Every structure is written in C-alpha cells, then in structure tokens.
Amino acid sequence: MHSIDKKIEELKLNLPLMPNPIANYLPYKIENNILYISGQGPILDGKLLYSGKVGVDISVDDGIKASEICCLNIISIIKFATSNNWDNFKCFIKIGGFVNCASNFKDQPKIINGASDLLVKIFGENGKHSRFAVGANALPINMSVEIEAMVALK
User: Fold this and answer.
1) CA 39, CA 76: separation in Å to the nearest integer?
2) Alpha carbons 118 and 128: distance in angstroms, whole number
3) What is the pLDDT of residue 22?
4) Over 90: is that where the pLDDT of 142 sits?
5) Low-confidence winner among 13-22, 24-33, 83-92 (lowest mean pLDDT)
6) Residue 134 φ/ψ, nearest 5 degrees
7) What is the 3-state secondary structure (H, E, C) of the chain?
8) Global confidence as pTM
9) CA distance 40 to 38
10) Which residue from 50, 69, 99, 137 has the highest number of Cβ atoms inside 10 Å of its Cβ?
11) Kind of pairing, strands 47-48 and 130-136?
12) φ, ψ for residue 57 (rounded to 5)?
C-alpha cells in the first residue's frame, strides 16, 4: 500500500468515487504534467450534502466540513487521473476556494482551511499550495463551497 493510501486510512477517510460533472465540462484535464481539476462541491454519491450560504443557512463548522468533502473529491480525481498510481503525483500547486456567503461574511479563509489542512495532513509538504478563498453570492446548484485545484504530476 502506498504511503498516501496509508495516510488516508490512518485518518479514517474514505475516498468517494470520482464525481461526474454537473454541466458540460471535463472533471479534469492534464497538460504539460499539470493536472487541472474543475471545481468540486460537497457532493457524495451524487448527493449535495451542504447547500446554501455559509453563516446563514449552514454553520461555519459545516462550511469547513463541506470544504473537506470538496477536497476528498479532488483527491479522488487525482487518483483516477493517475491510474491509481500515487508515484505519478508530485505536489499541489494551487487551490481556489469559493464560499457561498452573504456580503458581510468574512471567514472565507477559515472555510477553505478545511481543505488546505486536509491536504497537508495527507500529503505533507507536497500538500502545501498557494490558494485563494473568496466569497460568492451564489454557486452552482446552491452548493455552499466549491474548490478547484492545480496539481503537478511527474
């Protein structure tokens, strides 16, 4: 078992199946050893788990959990895109986080930390990344959080 799979198991996490896109786009694209992952929501088994505005419809803690689910979907896509071979993974480059929130909500970084912290727990130094965390007035299908990623491959 690869060390990344061991870490996922140690953290008692289950990777979901790679989610299907909800519109006309690719879930990922590889170009020049960069894996571009389309925005992922807090969706498991085709079901949206967190919807509405963070801080209004759902709590900050639930927003963080939503961010973690987005991250697990990203990891599933990496595993699929590398044909289940973690040796083809190099490191995270950047993630972009969108938080569905009211205009006076200021904790977007705290919400996206759910994903950032999980990446570092699983991938160590290779999970560290640049990022943005912004608020949005609305997100597709009313999801609470959406996260995209760029990953370097070997």
Assistant:
1) 13
2) 10
3) 87
4) yes
5) 13-22
6) -125, 155
7) CCHHHHHHHHCCCCCCCCCCCCCCCCCEEEECCEEEEEEECCEECCEECCECCECCCECHHHHHHHHHHHHHHHHHHHHHHCCCCHHHEEEEEEEEEEEEECCCCCCHHHHHHHHHHHHHHHHHHHHCCEEEEEEECCCHHHECEEEEEEEEEC
8) 0.96
9) 6
10) 99
11) unpaired
12) -90, -30
Mean pLDDT over 18-46 rounds to 95
Q: Indicate the domain borders of the chain.
A: 27-153
CA dist 37 and 52 (Å) reads: 23
CB atoms within 10 A of CB 32: 6
Residue 123: partners with Cβ closer than 8 Å, 6 or more residues away: 4, 7, 89, 91, 92
- Is residue 119 within 8 A of residue 62, CB to CB? The reply is no
pLDDT tens digits, residue range 87-120?
999 999 999 999 999 999 999 999 999 999 999 9
18's CB contacts (< 8 A; 6+ apart) are 27, 73, 76, 77, 79, 80
Q: Pick from 44, 38, 52: which is nearest to 17 by CA?
A: 44
